[in-house]
Amino acid sequence: MEKFEVTIIGAGIVGLALAARLAPKLKAELLLVEQQEGFGRETSSRNSEVVHAGIYYPENSLKARLCVSGCRRIYQLCRENDIAHQHIGKLIVATSSAEETFLDELRQRGCKNGVSGLKLLSAAESKTLEPQVKAQAALFSPDSGIVDSHNLMRLFQNQAKTAGTTIAFHTGITAIRPLHPGFRLECTGPDQDNFSFSSKIVINCAGLNAARLSRSAGILTPTIHYAKGSYFSYNGPAPLSHLVYPAPPSGGHGLGIHATIDLGGRLRFGPDLEYCETPDYTVNADRRSHFADAIRRYLPSLDENRLVPDMAGIRPRLQGPDAPFSDFIIREETPKTPGFINLLGIESPGLTAAPAIADEIAAMLDL
Ligand SMILES: Cc1cc2nc3c(=O)[nH]c(=O)nc-3n(C[C@H](O)[C@H](O)[C@H](O)COP(=O)(O)OP(=O)(O)OC[C@H]3O[C@@H](n4cnc5c(N)ncnc54)[C@H](O)[C@@H]3O)c2cc1C
Question: Distance from the CA of 49 to the center of ligand 1, in angstroms?
Fold first, then answer.
């Protein structure tokens, strides 16, 4: 049976960032396995590509800490490796007095998290930045931006490969058996052939599938809910030049239907939030009026007919429909299953946090 020192399951942005981080030390002792035919085919290619500054998350949470340091690391990686990105800046807008009070709370929370440059804007100041946006006040975050996440993932893949990592696509892990020490991983290969190999350490970066794999290793694992987020694109020249977000809904349920601009200048609205039983990426065109109502609160001039169903992504969420905020889970499953590292509930800001998550795990493994 073939043997590896460390196996990473899942070549999304997190598994790839981690492979790039561990590869220089582990070289050919590191394996990255991915069930799809290439990298980033699931949640990592179905998101807003926003580099979050780290404003929203409770102080000292993993989401806050890893987002703030991941944000800095992503911009640095983009500068050093010529990956397209823009410090486009973001406005979070208040359309009522209650929301205005909440913006100040958000500003304070962001400052405690280490986000720099946050500034509360009056209605007039907000209008100067975004003439078409209706805001009683706004919170401006200059560090929020956008990134070419596909090329970022390609960079991580190349760094891992160059250092000697084996990357096995079309290879789905079906079960993990603890061997005490180490693990046997059972899988299905490209020709539907079944085989197994062993690994001293397993790092579960399997996104939507992470809980199922964790349970297959006999680990008591929390439920991961599927929370679908759909987008509508805007057909026509963008009437906005920044990322524009409403004040977030209470209870930490998403960031509200917001406006993002991609590196090609294309405007998209979303994602909304719908819990679902199984991953389903179809966008329901009937949700157009729901989107239009939410968008008109901050962009009254919106022409609903310009909204076109675009794409959807699924968040792997630990937080159920009526539950309070939940953080990422990143832990070694000691004492029962040492050597098994679980990453569960890596929803937003997982793209931004990926390089910092990789550092966190490298420190855990002393690598
Ligand atoms: C709608 C939406 C918008 C978002 N917007 C943002 C944003 O703007 N900014 C931000 O920072 N974050 C955002 N996020 C969050 C971000 O996209 C995710 O946190 C991030 O992509 C998670 O990456 P991952 O590598 O953990 O998971 P994934 O990309 O899901 O990767 C997991 C990989 O594991 C593979 N896998 C699963 N099971 C197996 C198996 N049995 N064997 C082998 N391989 C397996 C899958 O095929 C997949 O490639 C958003 C998420 C959503 C859904």
Answer: 12
Rg (C-alpha) for the chain, rounded Å, is 21
Query: Whole-structure pTM over 0.85, yes or no?
Result: yes
- pLDDT digit string (tens) for 56-83? 999 999 999 999 999 999 999 999 999 9
Closest CA to ligand 1's atom 14: 348
Tell which one of 13, 34, 37, 47 to mutate to probe ligand 1, the residue whose CB is within 8 A of the most ligand atoms: 47
Q: What pLDDT score does 251 carry?
A: 65
Q: Decide: 272 in ligand 1 pocket, CB within 6 A.
A: no
Q: Dump pLDDT digits (tens) for 323-352.
A: 989 999 999 999 999 999 999 999 999 999
**How crowded is the C-beta side of 180, counted as CA atoms within 13 Å?**
4
- The span from the CA of 265 to the CA of 46, in Å, is 18
**For the segment 197-249, what is each residue's pLDDT rounded down to a tens digit?**
999 999 999 999 999 999 999 999 999 999 999 999 999 999 999 999 999 87
